[in-house]
Amino acid sequence: HIFDAIGRPELREKAPGSTSTVGGLIQAELDRVAVAGDETTWNGLSLEVLEMDGLRIGRIRVTVLADEPGS
């Protein structure tokens, strides 16, 4: 799972409702079908849609955001 790969396995439990994929998480955060170029932040991650495959997200970029000073 992507959250394990980035060293944040605890985020699996924080995903909303029935979301089981990062693509589903992005679309839930956007509250619409994503398009290439969409980006959202969630729990210290930047999630960017790079490519769509029809209505499905085909490729994403996940960036771990730097902790803010004092946090």
Description of the molecule:
By secondary structure, the protein is α+β, with helices and mostly antiparallel strands. Helices cover 18% and strands 31% of the residues. The chain has two helices and three strands. The chain has a three-stranded antiparallel beta sheet with strand order 1-2-3, covered by helices on one side. The longest helix has 9 residues, at 22-30. The radius of gyration is 12 Å and the shape is globular. The mean pLDDT is 86.
Coarse structural class = alpha+beta
Instruction: Indicate the mean pLDDT.
Output: 86
Number of helical runs?
A: 2
Rg of Cα set: 12 Å
The fraction of residues assigned to DSSP E strands is 25-35%
- Give the distance, in angstroms, between the N- and C-terminal Cα atoms: 26 Å
Task: Give the low-pLDDT segments.
Answer: none
The 3D shape can be described as: globular
H/E element string? HHEEE
Tell how many strands the DSSP assignment holds.
3
